[in-house]
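Hello again, I could really use a second opinion on something today. I've been puzzling over a protein and I'd love to understand its fold better. I'm sending you its amino acid sequence along with the backbone structure tokens. It would help a lot if you went through both lines with me. I've dropped the whole record in just underneath, so have a look.
***
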Amino acid sequence: MTDETVSAALSARTVAARKVATVEGPAPWALISPLQVGSSIGNGWRIRSLSDVRLGASVLSVEHTSGATSDVHICLRDGAPTGVAASRHFDFVLMNEANGARDTDEALGVAVMTLARRAATNELGLSRRGYMAHPDRLTQYGWEQIA
């Protein structure tokens, strides 16, 4: 392959990723159905909210009975999982600003794994349009915009 061919292929992938990322959609409640706002996901964690799909992901906010909160970005899975948990088509990425340098709270990790198992039972008939893999989101938007 020539440098020109490689550049064209990479450019086409970037353009395709940008087109996908401009797609927005409603909050994907069907992915975690029958869970809803207030539902327990285990270990003292409850669902606070689920955002619309934008910037390549949907943000699931959860709250612990202690008052601690956390955001889990539901992203497209592209190859090996990159999040705390994953289903066949989605990664569940904990956004705790540690970038993998800090251990995930075990109770939260187990709760997020429960969500991923729920998604695995619901995801097959759902559209993945508008979602991006987490590394692609970081490349396109940067940490500051997606965090």
